[in-house]
Amino acid sequence: MSSPRSAHFLFLSCLVLVCAVLFVRSFYLPRFDWDPVGMAFWPRVLIAALLCLAAWISITSVRSPDTYSPTRPDTRGFRLPALSLLYIVSVEPIGFLLATPPFLFLLALGWSPVSGRSIIRGLAVAVVGTFLVLAVFQLGVDVELPPGLLDR
After folding, report:
1. Which of 31, 75, 78, 89 is most buried as measured by Cβ atoms within 10 A of its Cβ?
2. What CA–CA distance (Å, rounded) separates 94 from 88?
3. Closest CA to 147 of 85, 89, 92
4. pTM of the model
């Protein structure tokens, strides 16, 4: 499992497996008579987009071996979907206040090369963004966000 191609294949396999599990779980979301699309529509669209991205990266890496670097596979296209998927899966058990700041921090670090300034900007985005989203959901729309570990 030491070659970059096998690591790439392992990552793609894990992504497909997680998408399959999430797709099956989407059938357990409630349906309402007044909602023609249903609550599961947008999660399924996101899952389909992740699967299309995985397929596209797999096909392009096989079709163009001349751009493939044997020392380091190009997985930049997976960063945002993988980070988002990790956040979506972890926000309920861990909780909004514990899962959102690291997600926003890593998201902000992806904007530019890592430096002292980008770390400070990432921390500011994480703190301000978390409390803005919290304020919008709890004060604006009166929706309780998952407490996770903080509730126990």
Report:
1. 78
2. 11
3. 92
4. 0.54
* Own/partner pairs, 51-57, CB within 8 angstroms, 24+ separation: 51/15, 51/16, 51/19, 53/77, 53/78, 53/81, 54/12, 54/15, 54/16, 54/19, 57/12
d(CA 57, CA 53): 6
- Model confidence pLDDT, tens digit, residues 43-79: 888 888 878 877 776 766 665 555 555 555 556 667 7
For tokens 């059938």, the residue is 27
Distance CA 50, CA 139 (A): 32
7 Cα distance to chain centroid: 19
Decide: 137 and 143 in contact? Cβ < 8 Å: yes
